[in-house]
Structures are given as structure tokens and as C-alpha cells.
Design brief:
The complex is a heterodimer of chains A (498) and B (457). Chain A is of the alpha/beta class and 498 residues long. Chain A has 15 helices and twelve strands. Chain A has a domain of 253 residues: Type I PLP-dependent aspartate aminotransferase-like (Major domain) (Aspartate Aminotransferase, domain 2), CATH 3.40.640. Chain A has a seven-stranded mixed beta sheet with strand order 1-7-6-5-4-2-3, sandwiched between helices. The relative contact order of chain A is 0.13. Chain B has 457 residues and is of the alpha/beta class. Chain B folds into three domains: 44 residues, no CATH class; 260 residues, Aspartate Aminotransferase, domain 2; 105 residues, Aspartate Aminotransferase, domain 1 (Alpha-Beta Complex), CATH 3.90.1150.10. Helices cover 37% and strands 15% of the residues of chain B. The chains are: A alpha/beta (498), B alpha/beta (457). At the A-B interface, helix 1, helix 2, helix 3, helix 4 and helix 5 of A face helix 1, helix 2, helix 3, helix 4 and helix 5 of B.
């Protein structure tokens, strides 16, 4: 594909020429006669550095910058484990309702029955999808869901009077798993991946003990492989008194096909901004949901959404719960988007999404493997689920072109690159997840682009190494960006680097 | 079944793709044990896929059960208040290049997004008078929890002094986040005569920081900022200040009175209330090596092309973060509130320096007006439940003759949403309700509230 990204040499908005007095403030004149009687020593004397601009200049500045950005609306963003689905436009508009955006979080429950009903229905649906008894919407993102889960596990053992301070985590896990476990005060025990690409059962058996608090797993794992021994893993952990935590980042690979609750998991977190199509917003907001079953429901962060008769309410009752993980009820707009998504697809549609996500992955593998450039580590004969991890190690060894170079060359083709260098157990990893929302044509074009880049690497590696050329800027200097002498995290440090 | 969001669900294409794989769908899931395969349809949604039209009818019907308070807006406080959301902000946020982008891991294709986030970091740093601001936390409560955990890592001390009347929503969250690392909140109060009084027993050797809310949860403007600054410097505490961004066009920024770490609730910066979330947690620091190494969250920094002259931006100091440092990361945060940071940058650009100053003044004037009206027109029925003189945006009103619960119901009957009852949230705030007035409240709104209170209280 031929493309060229826009480039605007756009000054910082703070540095633009100043105009006027600022926007109209509602009812400002009503209060003009009231004096500002505050003592001098607490008043602001310094400049805020903000610009004063006419509205049109503000709009142009940010529209120009948007043209130097790239999202799912622009083209495929097949970042592995990120589940970058198409974000339905109906939800962009329906979530603008003042009955959502203009609602104060502390309004009387009688005045928010509509919102509570949607939250309640969505909670019931999500519990059904993952096979849990109850979900809390409190965590604002996946990692906060993980932290909730890890603290729940800690509390649970604490209440049982047990000192279990070891959390088992596979070496293929998302980095947020060990980070969350550590934040909850656990020692992280790394479980190696076997040659089959799944948890090494012998290694697992050798580390479980009465110190094991639990295991944090994602299934399918980050290699896109289903942990087929999951029932045995569940047995091993539960027998020793530990709990199973499910990282829902990869739920798209089993949507409507299998449920974490049926696999033996005790606590599950979900990412509404992945599986349920809420947009990523350039990094956030997300929607983390943490769900539990049985006794563990008592430990979920409060409040929980409840229904009595035809009335909906928040249950703050917290005898054993871990408390609150965020200030109010979590991120409500992603929750409403989830409601819209599930209502639009129904059970049948969600199953279809899960099936096509898997078919897309395996179809893409087949297309890419038509040429000999990329390797598929860990049992290539085995079908992948929602994502796949290739290695560009051979290309690096034979041409000097790295996974990063290949990623930058993909940008020149008008595509976003895959996740690179993750998981850490694969050298020169390119981790790819198309989700069910990309068409076959896109899969074909992406495979062809990757193979074409590899061909160029063998003919003229410097061409690949000097990419990207079609993006608004060429390859950036990350060393200077991170060097203490040139580090510039805000405008006031710019003279160190520019 | 075919669905337009799932292109390859077209039965013919699906079949073709499976044929080219030489497999049935069952073959692709052969490694999922029979025993755990779901053999039925999930019982979710409304029984079948619904069209856009049907979904919008259902959603609107359910949402019509909400009561929207627009004229007058709710007088509810508690750290979140109704504020204007400019259409410019809504419009920019709808740009798919921002809205549907991922974290800018591929810098070269996302320079625009990164410039906006860099502008956000710089604007907030100037607003609070600090040097570095990360590109967002989830909300002010988690920003505060992370700030306190950061203080604990830097000082290796587990105690932090917090105001006697700390925001109870933030407090609950902080307690959850510091429980695993044995953090302890110790209450203090500022006494005009005696200075800082520590109210709980705790060894001073184990205290590493002091946390201040300005304005306080009750809307009180803290006049003793210099006293606090001297105190924390003398005790060598890390000084964490939570300030409302909309107050900072008017009030002295925390960096100027010695804050080492600042936090804030960005929800007033053009985000809307959204029933509490998405929100925006502001987190910033003064530039010190051990602070920036311990700072959680994403940071955008300036750089240049390797072989060219163009200026650019990249994510920096990623070695602090979970995807690289794993269990040794400063935090687990991954997804944040980037879109809300974009909204805040657009909002602050739209409001501008003069606008923000006028807005701060105007909200202050309305608070004064409301206070005067309470003191003049509700004599014997209600009073301000605070010893302080100056308030910003929120006012704690204690009712004397009738239970606020009943008054609140009377207000609701008349289409007015009153304040937040503090009885169960805070000690010593008997029959007290926290009211909020912002730029959305007119003189006649406030007059109506006072008149109604005079009638029903």
C-alpha cells in the first residue's frame, strides 16, 4: 500500500500567540460585585503558562496532531495481547447521553436507577461469560484488577491464618502479573515454559508448597497456546491450598468456547477495553472487572451492584472485602460500551467472535509460513488461539535486520507493528493478534508485507534498517531521550535536547 | 452467523479460510479438553443479535429512569463537582486517531498523540509548579495511593501523616493499596496556635511524609501553607499535596510552598462526571533523581530523529515499568487515562491562562455568595461547620433544626439535588451536608436552594 502520514511542524500550543480574555463563563456577571478577599500570601502570582487562544486555533492544533497519530480507525493495530478490536461507532454516540456523562457519582440511588440497571445486567452477563458468581467493576484497568485479585488472595490466606507469601507466575506471563503480585506483597516464583509452550508441570510440582498462595495464569497464554493441562494445574494448586487467578487479557481466544470458571479458576479479571471493544484512547481509559466465585466473592472490592425486587442498589457491606481499589464504581463508560457490545452480538455473536479470532490467527500463520523467513517457536504443529508469536531471529542472524527494524518497515506499509520483544522467552519476538474484526484481505496484505520486508532484508538490509520513511518522523533517538543529560519530560527541560 | 463487526463471519469466507487451513473449527480447538468446553450458548444479551436501532431504543429506555439535574445542576460535592465540558473537548476526543489508538509503543507513527501528552505533562507541571508530571493515573485516589507508596519506597518508612478530615473516598482507596506493604495513615490537624498536632500514637521515626489536601475535603482553603512547608522541611518529610486544578488559576501552586509530590483530580478539566469514571489522576514531582526513578506510570519525553533534524517524542524511562522490570517495577500500571489527559490538555488550551484565572475567581465568588446567604438567611437553621474563613467550591453546612436526610428528600421533591451527607463518612460532622457550587450554578440557582432550605429546614 502506498501512504504517507501527515507532518505538521506544529508549535507547542503554549507557545502560540495570545488573544483575548478566554471563553465565556456561565453567569459570571451574577457575582462580579463579590470581592476576592483572600490573603496575598496564598494567591497565585506566577504564570500558569497556558495560552489564550480563539477557539478555531485550539481545534486546528489538535486536529493537526491527530493527523500525526494512528488508531484502529486508521488501519490494523495487531498488537499481541492488546486485542485491538474495531470500536463500534454506535457506542461512541450512545455513551454521550447526559444520563451517563452528567451523573454525579454520589447522587441518590433513586435518581440513577437507569444506570444501575445497565450496570447490573452487564455484571450478570460478564459473570456468565467467565463462569463466576459475581463481578466488581471497581478496578479502572486490567492491572488494577490484577492488584485486586492479588490482594484478595492475600486477605483470604490471612483470614485463614496462613502465611503464604509465594505467587507462582509462568515466565510467559504479562509483566503486569509479577508487578501486581509484588505490589500485593508476594514473592514471585517464576515457572518455566515447557517445549510444548505451556506450563512445565514438573517444574510446577517442584515449587508448590504450603507457602504457595496461588498461581496467576492467562489461558490461552501469551504464545497463543491453550494450557491443555489446566485441570491438572488447578488440582495441583488447590490440593496445596492455593488459589487460581485468571488474567483476562487473552479471553478473546476462548470467548463463548470455554470459561475460566469451568477450568478451576477462583478469581478472574477482564479487560473491557480488549475483549469487549471499548477503545484504548491512546493508552487508556480501560475497564478492569474483577470476578470471583464461592467464598471469594466476600473478598471482592466493594461496592457490588445488587437488585432487590425491581430496585437496584450498591452493596457496601464489607466484612471480609479488600476495601476499595478506586474512588467510586470504576470506569462506567466502558461498562456501558460493554452492554452495547453484548446486546448487539448476543451469545451467538460472542461465540462467533471467539471462533473467527482463532481462525484469523491460524489463517495468518498459514499465509506467513508460505515463505521460510519467520519461525514459529514452541510446537508449530499446534493451532494457536487469539494470538501468535513469531521469531525473527533467523533474519537477524543472517541479515542484521532486527524485529524492531521489521516493525518500523511495517509502519511504512501503512500498518501498525505487532508487539515486539515480548514474551521474553522468544528471541526477536513479533507477537501478533488480529482479533475477529480484521478482514481476510487485511490478513493477506499483512502476511505479504512481512514476507516482502524479509525479502528486502536479504537483498538490501540497509533499506529495512533505515525505515520508517513514510511516517511523520523518521526513526527517533531513544538513547538521547533516556539519557540523564538530555532527559526532557516537560517543556522546561527542552534546551537540554533541542 | 454474519455480523458486520466480524468481517470473516461471512459463511463463505469462513468456510474458505477453514478449507485453506485443511481443518474444521473443532480441529483448531482440539487442545481444549472436552470436559471444559462450553456446550451451550451463553445466556447473555437479549436472545439474539440486535440492530443499532433496537440497541439504542433499549438503552435510552433504561436510561430514562435516571434523573438528570441540569437546571439547577446538583449541589453535590465530595471531591467531584459538576463542571462545564466544552464541545471542543468532546469533538477532539472523538477523533479516531486518538480514541482508537493504543499506547504509543511505535513512536514514529503516533507523534501527534505524544505531543499532546507532552503538552499535558508540561501544562500540569506549570499549573502545580513542579518539574515532571506523568502522562496520567486512573483517578485522584489511586494517584494518591501511588504517591504514598512512592514516598514509602524513597524514605523506607511506613507512616504518612494525613489530615484529620481527609477525603474519605481517597482514604479508603489508599488503605487498600498500602495494606500489603504495612503502610499506616496517621492523622494530624493544623492548629492555629500550636501548629501541627499529631492525633494518633505512632513512632515519629517511622513517619516519612505528610499529605495535605488544599482545598480540604470540606472546601477549606489552607492558609498555613508556609507553616506546613517549614514543618516538613524541619522533619525531613516528603510533602505530598493534593490540589484541585481549577483552584490553581487563583491559589498559589503547591510547588511554590514546598510540595515534593503533587496529586490532583483532573475530572474538572473538561471530562464530565461520568458517574465517577473514567476520571484522571494527576501525579507530578519535583525533579530529583530518586523521585523520577520511583515515579510510577508512563512518561513522554522529547527527542530528535536519529539521522534527521526533526524534533520528536518518545516514551521514556520505561525501565521503571512493568513490561520491562516485572516484579521490580515501580507500579503495575499499564492502561492509564491517556484520553482524559488529552481532554485535559484540550480543556486547558481552550480555557487559557486568563480564562482559568477568571474561572477560579468566579467559583470562589460563588462560594462566598453561598456562604453569605447561608449565614444571613438560614440563621438558627443552619451554619457552616468549620472554623475556617475561606472556602473554594465546597461548603460543609450543618443543619440544626431538622435531619438533613429529610431536608434532602424535600429538596429532591422540588427537583434540587442537595449535598453529600457526611454523618457516616466523617467523625464530628453531625447532620452536616457538603454542598458544591461551580461555574454552572447561577445566582438564581443558589437563591432557589437557599429559599427552599429556608422553607424546609
Amino acid at each position: 500500500m502506498r501512504w504517507r502520514q501527515a507532518y505538521w511542524d506544529e508549535n507547542f500550543i503554549q507557545d502560540k500567540k495570545r488573544y483575548g480574555e478566554g471563553p465565556l463563563i456561565p453567569y459570571e456577571d451574577d457575582f462580579r460585585e463579590i470581592k476576592i478577599d483572600l490573603p496575598e500570601n496564598i494567591l497565585r502570582r506566577s504564570s500558569t503558562g497556558l495560552p489564550d487562544l480563539p477557539e478555531i486555533e485550539v481545534v486546528r492544533h489538535f486536529i493537526r496532531l491527530s493527523q500525526m497519530s494512528y488508531g484502529v480507525d486508521t488501519g490494523p493495530v495487531p498488537l499481541g495481547s492488546c486485542t485491538m478490536k474495531y470500536n463500534p461507532k454506535i457506542a461512541d454516540f450512545l455513551t454521550q447521553s447526559p444520563a451517563i456523562t452528567d451523573v454525579h457519582p454520589l447522587q441518590d440511588e433513586d435518581t440513577v436507577q437507569g444506570l444501575l440497571e445497565i450496570i447490573y445486567l452487564t455484571e450478570r452477563w460478564l459473570s456468565e461469560i467467565v463462569g463466576m458468581d459475581k463481578c466488581s467493576f471497581q478496578p479502572p484497568a486490567g492491572a488494577a484488577g490484577e492488584l485486586s485479585g492479588a490482594i484478595m488472595i492475600k486477605r483470604y490466606h490471612h483470614d485463614k491464618g496462613q502465611m503464604r507469601d509465594e505467587m507462582l507466575i509462568p515466565d510467559s506471563a504479562h509483566g503486569s502479573n509479577p508487578a501486581s503480585a509484588a505490589m500485593a506483597g508476594f514473592k514471585v516464583i517464576r515457572i518455566p515454559t515447557s517445549y510444548k509452550g505451556t506450563v512445565d508441570l514438573d517444574a510446577l510440582r517442584s515449587v508448590v508448597s504450603d507457602k504457595t498462595a496461588g498461581i496467576m495464569l492467562t489461558n490461552p497464554n501469551t504464545l497463543g497456546i491453550f494450557e491443555e493441562d489446566i485441570l491438572e494445574i488447578s488440582d495441583i494448586i488447590h490440593k496445596t491450598g492455593g488459589l487460581l487467578y485468571y488474567d483476562g487479557a487473552n479471553l478473546n481466544g476462548i470467548l463463548g468456547i470455554a470459561r475460566p470458571g469451568d477450568m478451576g479458576f477462583d478469581i478472574v479479571h477482564l479487560n473491557l477495553h480488549k475483549t469487549f471493544s471499548s477503545p484504548h484512547g491512546g493508552g487508556g481509559p480501560g475497564g478492569g472487572v474483577v470476578c470471583a466465585r464461592g467464598e471469594l466473592v466476600d473478598y471482592l472490592p466493594r461496592p457490588l451492584i445488587m437488585k432487590e425486587g425491581s430496585r437496584y442498589y450498591w452493596d457496601y457491606n464489607c466484612e471480609r472485602c479488600i476495601g476499595r481499589i478506586s474512588a467510586f464504581y470504576g470506569n462506567i463508560i466502558p461498562v456501558i460500551r460493554t452492554f452495547i457490545y453484548i446486546a448487539s452480538l448476543s451469545g451467538r455473536g460472542l461465540r462467533e467472535a471467539g471462533e473467527i479470532a482463532i481462525i484469523n490467527t491460524n489463517y495468518f500463520i498459514k499465509r506467513l509460513m508460505e515463505k521460510p523467513y519467520y519461525q514459529l517457536p514452541y510446537d508449530p504443529s499446534r493451532p494457536r488461539k487469539h494470538e501468535v508469536v513469531f521469531s525473527a531471529k533467523k533474519i537477524l542472524q543472517e541479515t542484521g535486520v532486527s524485529a524492531e527494524d521489521i516493525s518500523k518497515a511495517l509502519l511504512d506499509e501503512g500498518f501498525h507493528a505487532p508487539t515486539m520483544y515480548f514474551p521474553l522467552i522468544v528471541d526477536e519476538a513479533l507477537m501478533i493478534e488480529f482479533t475477529e474484526t480484521e478482514s481476510r484481505d487485511v490478513l493477506d496484505q499483512y502476511a505479504e508485507a512481512l514476507n516482502r520486508i524479509a525479502e528486502v532484508a536479504y537483498k538490501d538490509p540497509s533499506l529495512v534498517k533505515s525505515s520508517p520513511r513514510n511516517t511523520s518522523v523518521r526513526r527517533l533517538d531513544y538513547v538521547r531521550a533516556n539519557h540523564p543529560k538530555t532527559l526532557a519530560p516537560t517543556k522546561k527541560f527542552l534546551d537540554k535536547i533541542w | 452467523m454474519y455480523h458486520p463487526w466480524i468481517p470473516n463471519s461471512d459463511p463463505k469466507i469462513k468456510e474458505d479460510m477453514l478449507r485453506s487451513l485443511g481443518a474444521s473449527f473443532e480441529d483448531l480447538i482440539r487442545d481444549i479438553p472436552e470436559k471444559i468446553r462450553l456446550r451451550r450458548e451463553l445466556e447473555i444479551g437479549f436472545g439474539r443479535p440486535l440492530s443499532e436501532h433496537e440497541v439504542s431504543i433499549i438503552l435510552e429506555k433504561i436510561l430514562s429512569k435516571n434523573v438528570v439535574f441540569k437546571d439547577p445542576p446538583p449541589f453535590l460535592g465530595g471531591g467531584v463537582c459538576p463542571h462545564a465540558v466544552p464541545y471542543v473537548v468532546k469533538y477532539i476526543l472523538m477523533r479516531g486517531e486518538f480514541y482508537t489508538a493504543y499506547t504509543p509503543y511505535q513512536a514514529e507513527i503516533n507523534q501527534g498523540l505524544m505531543q499532546v501528552l507532552f503538552e499535558y505533562q508540561s501544562m500540569i507541571a506549570d499549573l502545580y509548579d513542579v518539574d515532571v508530571v506523568n502522562s496520567s493515573m486512573y483517578d485522584v485516589s489511586t494517584a494518591t495511593a501511588e504517591a504514598i507508596r512512592m514516598m514509602m519506597r524513597i524514605t523506607r518508612k511506613r507512616g504518612v501523616l494525613v489530615p484529620e478530615k481527609m477525603n474519605p473516598f481517597i482514604k479508603k482507596v489508599v488503605e487498600t493499596w498500602i495494606w500489603p506493604v504495612d503502610g499506616v495513615l496517621i492523622r494530624y490537624k493544623i492548629d492555629p496556635a500550636e501548629g501541627i498536632l499529631i492525633l494518633d500514637k505512632f513512632s515519629e521515626n517511622e513517619i516519612g511524609g505528610l499529605y495535605l489536601e488544599n482545598p480540604s475535603f470540606l472546601g477549606e482553603i489552607i492558609e498555613e501553607t508556609d507553616l506546613l512547608n517549614d514543618y516538613v522541611k524541619k522533619k525531613k518529610f516528603i510533602f505530598i499535596v493534593n490540589a484541585e486544578p481549577l483552584s490553581l488559576g487563583l491559589l498559589k501552586p503547591p510547588g511554590e510552598y514546598g510540595a515534593d509530590i503533587v496529586v490532583g483530580n483532573g475530572s474538572s478539566l473538561g471530562l464530565g462526571m461520568n458517574y465517577g469514571g473514567p476520571s484522571l489522576g494527576i501525579l507530578g514531582i519535583k525533579m530529583r533523581e530518586e523521585f523520577i526513578r520511583q515515579l510510577p506510570g508512563r512518561l513522554i519525553g522529547a527527542t530528535k530523529e536519529v539521522d534527521g533534524d526533526k524534533k520528536g517524542f518518545a516514551m521514556i524511562l520505561q525501565t521503571r515499568e512493568q513490561h520491562i522490570r516485572r516484579e521490580r517495577a515501580t507500579s503495575n500500571i499499564t492502561t492509564n487515562s491517556a484520553l482524559e489527559a488529552v481532554a485535559a490538555a484540550v480543556y486547558l488550551s481552550y480555557v487559557g491562562e486568563k480564562g482559568l484565572r477568571r474561572l477560579g475567581e468566579s467559583i470562589y465568588q460563588r462560594t462566598v455568595y453561598m456562604k453569605n446567604r447561608v449565614e444571613k438567611d438560614l440563621v438558627g437553621k443552619a451554619c457552616i461547620n468549620s472554623e475556617r474563613r475561606f472556602f473554594f467550591r465546597e461548603l460543609p453546612i450543618r443543619f440544626i433544626t431538622r435531619s438533613y436526610r429529610e431536608i434532602h428528600r424535600e429538596l429532591l421533591k422540588r427537583g434540587i439535588h442537595g449535598g453529600l451527607l457526611l454523618d457516616n463518612l466523617m467523625e464530628g460532622m453531625v447532620n452536616t451536608s457538603l454542598f458544591c457550587v461551580t461555574e454552572l450554578h447561577s445566582r438564581s440557582h443558589i437563591d432557589l436552594l437557599i429559599k427552599t432550605l429556608a422553607e424546609v429546614a
